[in-house]
Hints:
- The protein is α+β, with helices and mostly antiparallel strands.
- The chain has helices at about 15-25, 70-75, 80-85, 90-105, and strands spanning about 30-40, 45-50, 65.
- A hairpin with a 5-residue loop joins strand 1 and strand 2 (about 45-50).
Amino acid sequence: MNELKFNSQVCTDINQSQRLLELGLKPETADMYYHEGSEDGAGNIEYHRNIRTERDNILFPDYIPAWSLHRLLCMLNYDNADTFNIMPNLAYEDVIATISLRIGCGAFNKEYLKQ
C-alpha cells in the first residue's frame, strides 16, 4: 500500500510569519497561529499550528501569527478570478514579496498594518 505524503504548505511558516510582522502586518489579521508545544528528543521545541476561531480571537504573547495563502490573497484584494489564474505557480514567497512591494510603494491596505 502506498502511503500518501502531503507536502503542501497550510500557512506561512514561522520565518515567513516573522517577515510579515516585520513588514508591519497586524498580528490580528492572521487566520492561524503557532504555539509552543513539547520538546522533541533532541531538545528542540515543537510548534503546533492552529486555526484562529472566535474563541481564539486574542493572540497570546507566546503565539506566533500565521497566514493562510487565501488570507494573504484576500489582503492583496485578489478576487476569485485573479486567484484562479495565478494559482498554478503561486508560492508563499511570491505573495510575501508582493506584499512587501505594495507596502513599500504605499499601495497596501493600511487597515492591515500596525500604526
